[in-house]
Amino acid sequence: MFDVGDQRPVLMTAAQEFPCIDTVHKSYWEPEGVALMKREGIGYDFSHRGLPPFWPRLKSNLKKAVFAVFPWELVVRVQNVFNLGMK
After folding, report:
1. Which of 10, 37, 47, 50 falls 20 to 30 Å from 16 in CA-CA distance?
2. Interatomic CA distance for residues 16 and 5, integer angstroms
């Protein structure tokens, strides 16, 4: 085992995946991450970063809805036709 100092190790196995929640994304707190930290009693500081502005949150939620409603293959096909995929 390697020395991780005072950091907690990340535990995983080849047979099991553990859930992961992004608490900070593009310099903003993620609402789901803040909710998790509140639930677990982990401190956070809004004085240096806040929640994302309205329009980026709306765009993100619309993307989540599209991926939840439509089959993955259709979404990828539309992205390819309109050159909207990851860049």
Report:
1. 37
2. 25
pTM listed for this prediction = 0.51
DSSP state, residue 6 = T
Rounded Cα gap, residues 24 and 20, in angstroms: 12
Segment 31-72, tens digit of pLDDT: 888 998 899 899 888 898 998 899 888 888 888 888 888 888
Q: For residue 21, what are its two tokens?
A: 């929640």
As a whole number of angstroms, the distance between CA 48 and CA 33 comes to 16
C-beta neighbour count of 33 within 10 angstroms:
17
Give residue-wise pLDDT tens across range 14-31: 777 666 778 888 889 988
Query: Residue 86 region, left (φ>0) first, then alpha (ψ -120 to 50), else beta?
Result: beta
Helix intervals (H) in the chain: 31-40, 54-69, 72-81
